[in-house]
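Quick one: structure for this chain?
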Amino acid sequence: GNEDKRNDYLKQAIKYLTHSLEIYPNYGDALLLLGNGYFEYNKNLDSSIWAYRKLLTLNPEHNLAYSNTELVLRATDSVDYKIKVWEDYFTINPNRFEVNYQLGILYGRFKNDLPKAKYYLLRAQAINPNDAAVNKDLGVAYGMSMQYDSSLVFLKKAVEIDPKDSQTLVNIGITYLNLNQKDVALDYFQKASKIDPNVKIPIDLNK
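Got it. Here's what it folds into:
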């Protein structure tokens, strides 16, 4: 049926692209399409990543190579595999936002390695200081490290960029609670519940 037709088409495409690369080894478009084809055909992550990686060695700023890598890596639950890929990309382009941000998240959320998480997230934040997510993640990482003053700097920056982010307002409130500044904390909790009445707040606002 259609599935077989699609697979035949992909098989032919992979064969054709592989042949083009034998003639023109530095043909970037073919590498990108080959990476996509390997993944579409049989979820072959290793081959996909190989093609995207090769493309990045030719052009370390190729946007689609990064975004497609993020997409195909969703197919695996292995945090170690993802870290290995991004650390390898780091050797190719250590100043790329996605590379540092992904490593920061992987080490922070999944490995609970806060020093490494902060190292990569700080690099990502220096590359793109106006990214709300990286500021938020840095704020959380510093909060978990009990470095509350640093945490507030990044959480407040995140809210400046995205004022409707009720969860970050709650995180700021919790940070003030940790600093024994309950009145300021309550102020942030109220702001958060105005934006989203269902947001989870650690204390009862009606008392």
